[in-house]
Every structure is written in C-alpha cells, then in structure tokens.
Automatic annotation (TrEMBL):
<dbReference type="Pfam" id="PF00067">
    <property type="entry name" value="p450"/>
</dbReference>
<keyword id="KW-0503">Monooxygenase</keyword>
<dbReference type="InterPro" id="IPR001128">
    <property type="entry name" value="Cyt_P450"/>
</dbReference>
<keyword id="KW-0479">Metal-binding</keyword>
<keyword id="KW-0408">Iron</keyword>
<dbReference type="InterPro" id="IPR017972">
    <property type="entry name" value="Cyt_P450_CS"/>
</dbReference>
<keyword id="KW-0560">Oxidoreductase</keyword>
<keyword id="KW-0349">Heme</keyword>
<dbReference type="GO" id="GO:0016705">
    <property type="term" value="F:oxidoreductase activity, acting on paired donors, with incorporation or reduction of molecular oxygen"/>
</dbReference>
<feature type="binding site" description="axial binding residue">
    <location>
        <position position="487"/>
    </location>
    <ligand>
        <name>heme</name>
    </ligand>
</feature>
<dbReference type="InterPro" id="IPR036396">
    <property type="entry name" value="Cyt_P450_sf"/>
</dbReference>
<dbReference type="GO" id="GO:0004497">
    <property type="term" value="F:monooxygenase activity"/>
</dbReference>
<protein>
    <recommendedName>
        <fullName>Cytochrome P450 monooxygenase</fullName>
    </recommendedName>
</protein>
<dbReference type="GO" id="GO:0005506">
    <property type="term" value="F:iron ion binding"/>
</dbReference>
<dbReference type="GO" id="GO:0020037">
    <property type="term" value="F:heme binding"/>
</dbReference>
<dbReference type="InterPro" id="IPR002401">
    <property type="entry name" value="Cyt_P450_E_grp-I"/>
</dbReference>
<comment type="pathway">
    <text>Secondary metabolite biosynthesis.</text>
</comment>
Length: 665
C-alpha cells in the first residue's frame, strides 16, 4: 500500500518540483522550531547552523575535536552559547555546582543512549532511581579501603611494563628494532624510541582486567592489543559458569575497538534519537556499530571466563555479584555483564589517555620533568623497586601538581557533559532555562579560564598549583565531574596515576620525538607522542656512593642562576639524596682538588661499570653532564685557586677524563 502511494506520488511530481520541494521541506522543518522557540533560547549566540540543526554538533563530534571547537565558539560568542537547537553550553565555573548538583533533578540527556550496549549500566542509565540503586552497589566497590586492596595488583602490571621497556632498551642500545607495540620500536642514537599510547593502553587494560575480572588480558606480556570475544555472544551469556572452548572464541584488537566505539557513540549521541537508526547504517558509521557489539563481547568473554574459574580474591566482579538491588536480589547476568562492561570502558581508556597526556607534557617540559625526578629521588630514596608504592607517592606535592596540570590541560571527558533541565526549570548564572533544555559546562574551556588559571593557560606549568587562588582553582578543576554522576572510580584512578607516573618518571627520562608535536584533543585522543626512554639511575646502578662526595662538592660550588646551573641544581639534589648528609660545605683549595680528582675517579668508576653493562646509553648522558660540569667548574670555581695550579689540574683531569671516555664510547 505504501509502495503504491509512493508510486502515485512519484508519477505526479516531476523532478524539478522535487528539487525545490525536498530542500524547502527540510528548511521549513528546521525554521519552524527556531521561530517557535519553545525553550526561549533563541537570543543566545552561537554558530549559525547550530541554531537550526543538530548536524553541526554531530559533525563537530564526528571530526573528533569537539572540545576545541566549542572552546573557540565560547571565545567568539562569550560564556553562554547555543551549540545545538536545544543545547546551551555554559563556560562558567559557577555553573558546575548548579548544573551537576546533587538533588537538582537534572538527568543525563539522550546523548547517553548512544553509549548503551547489552543494557544500561551505571554510566548511561538515565532514570534517577535506577541510577541511585546501581550507584549504591558500585560505589561500595570503590571505597578507599577496597581501592587500597588493589594496590599490589596495580604495581604488578606497572612492574611488568617497565620490565618490558628495560628489555627493549637493552636491545635498542645495540641499535636493534622490533615490532612489539602497535607501531614497533627502534633503537637510535643509543636510545629506545616508541609510541607510548599503545603501551599505556596495554597497561590500563591489564590493570582493569585484573581488577574487574580477576585476570589480566595479557597485553603487556604479549605487547599486543588483543582480547578474546565469543563468536556467539548470546549463547555464551546463557552458558555462564561453563568453560568456553577455544573454537568458540576469537581474538580482536580491544583498544582499537574501544576507541572506535567512543568516537561512534559520541557523534551518534549528538544527533536526534530518531536519526540514529538511519545514521548508524551509513558508510562512515557502520564500523562503529560493529565496535559497540565487539566491545560488549569482550565483557561477555571475561565474565564468562571469570565465572567458570572463580578466583580466590576480591575483584570488582565478585563485589558486583555480592551487590543486591532494592529488593535484596542479586544482579541478573545481563546487568552483571553490563556493569562489568561499564567498568572496563570507564576504567581503561580514561587512565591510559590521562597517563599519555601527563607524560606528553612532562616530555615537552624539561624543567618540570627534572623537578619531578628530584622530588621522586628525594622521597622515594634509592631503593631499586621498580614500581612505587602507595605509601611512597601519596604525599608528593609536585607529583600531584604534575598530574593535576596534565588533567587540567587534557581531561579525557573535556566536553561539556549534557544534562536535561528538570520540571520547573533551572537558573544558572542568573539565566533561567525551562524544562527540557539541555545544558552543559565544558571542562576544556573552564580549565582554560584565564581569570582562574592565569594568562598562561595553555602552558603546562605545575607550579601554578602552588600559587594563585586555590579555592577558585579547586572549584573549577573538573576532570572527574561533580555531583551524583561524578566518577565513581576516582579513588582508583588517582592511585593508578600516582603509581604509574611516579614509577615511569623515576626510572626513565623521556622526550618528544618532535618537540613541536601537539597533543590532539580528540575524544578519545589518538596517538601523539614518542618517548625516548633510558634509565637515569646511574648512581644506583654504580653503587659507588662514597665516590660521589667530591662530585657533590664540585656541584655544590656551582652557582644556580642560569638555565644550565638550574639543571645542575636538580642534578645535585638528585645525587645528594644518595649520599650521607654530613658534608662539609667549604670549598677551599684542598677540597677543590679532592673534588676534581674525586670527580675523575667517580666518572671512570661509573664508566667502567656502565661500559661493562648493557646500559651503554646512560653513559653518554653522564658523559654530557660531566663535561658540562667540568666546563662550569672551570669557568666558575677555578679562579678561586692559584692559576697555574688550576690550569695544571684542569689539563690533567680533562685529559684523563677525555681519554677514559673515548675508550668507553
Ligand atoms: C583518569 C581517569 C578517569 C577520569 C578522568 C574519569 C572521569 C570521569 C568522568 C568525567 C565521569 C562523568 C561522566 C559523565 O557524567 O558522563 C566519570 C564517570 C564514571 N567513571 Fe570515571 N574517570 C576515570 C577513571 C575511572 C576508573 C578507573 C573507573 C573504574 C574502574 C571509572 C568509573 C566510572 C564510572 C562507573 C562512571 C559513571 C558514574 C555514574 O554515572 O554514576 N572511572 N568518570
């Protein structure tokens, strides 16, 4: 019947009429709501197309730079802008406490429907009562006490990761290269070069796999993005408790799929719900739909494996199983799987992207990285434990400032999280918004508000966390969101970041391959940085702390006014942490002589050690530092001793040092 009607219509309408009628109808369909203006928001400025259609926001989201574009829109039009026909973005820190407040009646908007797979989980459930029930079960899992029990597991995987890097480093300094990690690794200039993002993903997936399902995905050990999914998801869910056969499973790239799914859901969620079934079938979107399904498969396989082989410890899944709904009933298998999937998604790429962002900024900022090295060396001591412990990292102000500064510049959820105004409307920053309006506060933009953070908002400068208006900064800093839908895994995420960043920075020095390379603010971000990694704990390696004494005296003599000297101040502090504190401060001639000879002995001894070990590369760094130290030493100290003596001393020391070094290189 419908076909018949369409045929009749087709016969009656000629192509020319259709060419006018179709765009005309589309225009009218968009113009009427704008003229009618049911929410009374027509007066708010914003991009022209965004006033009439959701396509603008959908397009911007699909392109992957939503937060940056919205930021530019705010710079152009001011703090309150219309970014879709029914969506107002408010870039004002004061709005956070209203839009996301406890008890304000606002719910998540239909944006979150695009993130549902299997069934709604705590992240994408929109009904308030349903959310309260789920949240009660889940927040218990993430109590500070429970999170502390996870600490050894986090450290285990950080250790595995660093052992892998050490192994690759050993080969890289011999000039080798390999294909472990998504884009492989190579040795160049005696250093190890690789892309950090895949490794950060392996780490995050293995940690969350262990915490959630009692076993890691094994990505670090395999150095590969791979997870098992069932070929038939439904039947596997029905047979939970039975061990799956090998032929029922297949391997898929989990990280790739997670990223694809994030991009897909983000852009689909920005479109009106009635368009989504059509749009998801379009060529650029079909793969995203498959990713959503495959991702669910990862959770199904992991839950199935875990239920078939129970582990003798508490993990998130056992906590979920112990949870009860309002009537005292346990979660059904679908709900259990949906929540496990939520934790897998929420706890993996968030942590890995944050890790990458923080290390990216540290890699691009020598001063901050050295300062962090210093704090870690001083506080963590000289023990050669690979992964730092919670007790070691919990009160390190500079480490915390580096993490906060990284999260300020690069929050993984930097877009404004959309909330639906409840019955009765909502007044935000003096403006009234009626029921049904969608409001959001973009973290990306408020994290760059110069009135809060200062004029250098784009600069990674951890020091800002010790200056300025602390209350304003704390109020504006929003990486984990606020209110009833704030991140439930925040305690866990913070602990992970502290241990990961401390352990990596303490052990390695890293730089960007291309210093001008910008971090991309895609959500989720794509790969952005290469790291150079090499162990810097020369002194711990050498174990010759006694010989360090004269070296310190030399370094102590240096004044710290120039950039070079600042680096030496950091170096000195680092070395000092390995040495007994009862040192004479004098720099008389005797001591200078001892210092220079000590420097020489130190250098040659360390070089002997290093030269005979596989760590040939740190030697180069030491060599650079020592020759710089000597240059500065000559320039600034030697004028204090008789010239002929100093010249003889210089020549003698320099010559022997150079000879020794050239023998070793
Ligand atoms: C650096 C790491 C992390 C960041 C930056 C982060 C950030 C956030 C943000 C901004 C939200 C609010 C999302 C929204 O309203 O749409 C959120 C929610 C959530 N996060 Fe995290 N998160 C991190 C790590 C984790 C971890 C490790 C877990 C657990 C394993 C986790 C579990 C959750 C859950 C379950 C929710 C939904 C809470 C609810 O709606 O009640 N997150 N997270």
């Amino acid at each position: 019947m419908i076909l018949g009607a369409l045929n009749t219509l087709y016969d009656r309408i000629d192509l020319q009429t259709a060419a006018y009628a179709i765009p005309g109808a589309i225009l009218v369909a968009h113009l009427i709501p704008w003229l009618w203006d049911p929410q009374g928001i027509r007066s708010y400025p914003g991009p022209f197309f965004a006033k009439f259609t959701d396509i603008w926001l959908g397009y911007v989201s699909k392109k992957g730079h939503r937060s940056e574009v919205i930021h530019e829109v705010h710079r152009k039009y001011g703090p309150i802008v219309r970014i879709a026909p029914n969506h107002i973005s408010i870039a004002d820190p004061d709005a956070l406490a209203v839009v996301y407040a406890h008890g304000n009646g606002a719910t998540k908007s239909n944006f979150y429907d695009a993130f549902v797979s299997i069934r709604r989980g705590v992240f994408n459930v929109r009904d308030r009562n349903e959310h309260t029930r789920k949240r009660k079960i889940i927040s218990h899992i993430f109590s500070q006490k429970n999170v502390m029990e996870f600490e050894p597991h986090i450290r285990l995987y950080v250790t595995q990761l660093l052992q892998q890097w050490d192994r690759l480093f050993g080969m890289a300094v011999k000039g080798m290269s390999g294909d472990e990690g998504e884009s492989g690794w190579k040795g160049r200039d005696g250093r190890l070069w690789f892309d950090l993002l895949p490794w950060a993903n392996y780490l995050a997936f293995d940690i969350i796999g262990d915490l959630a399902f009692g076993a890691p995905f094994g990505m670090i050990q395999a150095a590969k993005d791979v997870a098992l999914v069932p070929k038939d998801q439904q039947s596997m869910m029905k047979s939970y408790g039975k061990e799956a056969k090998e032929e029922e499973m297949m391997g898929i790239p989990a990280v790739k799929i997670l990223n694809g799914r994030g991009e897909f859901s983000m852009s689909l969620g920005s479109l009106p719900p009635h368009w989504r079934p059509v749009v998801r079938r379009l060529p650029g979107w079909r793969q995203g739909g498959k990713d959503v399904k495959n991702l669910a498969g990862i959770a199904i396989a992991a839950v199935s494996k875990r239920l078939a082989t129970p582990v003798d410890r508490t993990d998130l899944l056992s906590n979920l199983q112990a949870g009860r709904d309002g009537d005292g009933n346990p979660l059904g298998r679908e709900e259990l799987t949906a929540e496990a999937l939520t934790l897998l998604i929420a706890g993996s790429d968030t942590t890995s992207n944050s890790t990458c962002a923080i290390l990216y900024y540290l890699a691009g900022n020598r001063y901050a990285q050295e300062k962090l090295h210093k704090e870690l060396d001083e506080q963590l001591g000289t023990e050669d434990e690979v992964a730092a412990t919670e007790a070691q990292v919990k009160r390190l102000p500079y480490l915390e400032a580096c993490i906060n500064e990284g999260l300020r510049l690069h929050s993984t959820s930097s877009l404004g999280l959309p909330r639906l105004v409840p019955e009765g409307g909502m007044t935000v920053c003096g403006q009234f918004f009626p029921e049904g309006t969608v409001l959001s506060v973009p973290s990306y933009t408020i994290h760059r508000d110069p009135t809060v953070w200062g004029e250098d908002v784009e600069v990674f400068r951890p020091e800002r966390w010790f200056e300025g208006d602390q209350a304003a900064m704390q109020k504006t800093f929003n990486p984990f969101s606020v209110g009833p839908r704030a991140c439930v895994g925040r305690n866990l995420a913070s602990l992970e970041l502290l241990i990961i960043i401390a352990s990596i920075t303490r052990r390695y020095d890293f730089v960007l391959e291309d210093p001008d390379q910008k971090i991309l603010d895609k959500s989720p971000p794509v790969q952005f940085a290469k790291l150079i990694v090499y162990p810097f704990h020369l002194l711990q390696i050498s174990g010759h702390t006694a010989i360090l004494r004269p070296l310190l005296i030399v370094l102590d003599g240096l004044e710290c006014e120039s950039e070079d000297a600042r680096e030496f101040a950091i170096l000195r502090a680092k070395y000092r942490s390995s040495i007994p504190v009862d040192w004479p401060a004098e720099t008389d001639f005797e001591i200078v002589v001892r210092a220079v000879s000590g420097l020489f002995i130190f250098a040659s001894t360390v070089m002997k050690d290093i030269g005979s070990s596989e760590h040939a590369n740190p030697f180069k760094r030491l060599q650079r530092h020592l020759s710089q130290a000597l240059d500065l030493f000559y320039a600034r100290i030697l004028h204090k001793i008789p010239q002929d003596t100093s010249e003889a001393l210089c020549r003698h020391t320099q010559l022997r040092l150079i000879q020794e070094m050239s023998m070793r290189t």
